[in-house]
Amino acid sequence: MDFAAAMPLAGTLGVTIDEGTKDRVAGKLPVRPEICTAGHIIHGGAIMAFADCLGAVGAFLTLPEGASGTTTIESKTNFLGAGPEGSVLIGEATPVRIGKRLSVWQTRIRTEDGADVALVTQTQMVLWPA
Questions:
Q1: Cross-strand partners of 83
Q2: Which sign, positive or negative, has the C-alpha torsion 65, 9, 97, 109?
Q3: Percent of the chain with pLDDT over 70
């Protein structure tokens, strides 16, 4: 399944998802001028959106039987470094806890050289049919 294609924002940002399993979601985000701020570094909101895309895929893949979807209800970002324009950021989301109603995912974002850019923890709520 092309997970990025299922999320219009991922396509707008340029997110690609290389791996999507219940235990790990990995993807890339090229840092283009359109998603940068002053100093030619990636905007923090773009970093958060990238992490949210990866965590959402993981939450979707771990939905319990009968669930209709998932939505982010909380997200916390620690910014650890810069993502310079022209670089490619690598993101890896892994589950912290998977439950019937909620899942918690942690996404580590680095440059291709391995420098830390951000650590994002998000909570995804499971949606049930009405």
A1: none
A2: positive
A3: 99
Tell me the three-class secondary structure of 112-128, residue by residue.
Answer: CCCCEEEEEEEEEEEEC
Closest alpha carbon to 90 in 46, 28, 43, 13: 28
Tokens 């959402």 correspond to what residue?
56
Amino acid residing at 97: R
Kindly provide the b/e burial profile for residues 94-113, where b requires at least 16 CB atoms within 10 angstroms of the residue's own CB. ebeebeeeebbbbbbbbbee
Q: Tell me the whole-structure pTM to 2 decimals.
A: 0.95
Full DSSP string of 63-74 = PPTT--EEEEEE
Structure tokens given for 51: 């992490």
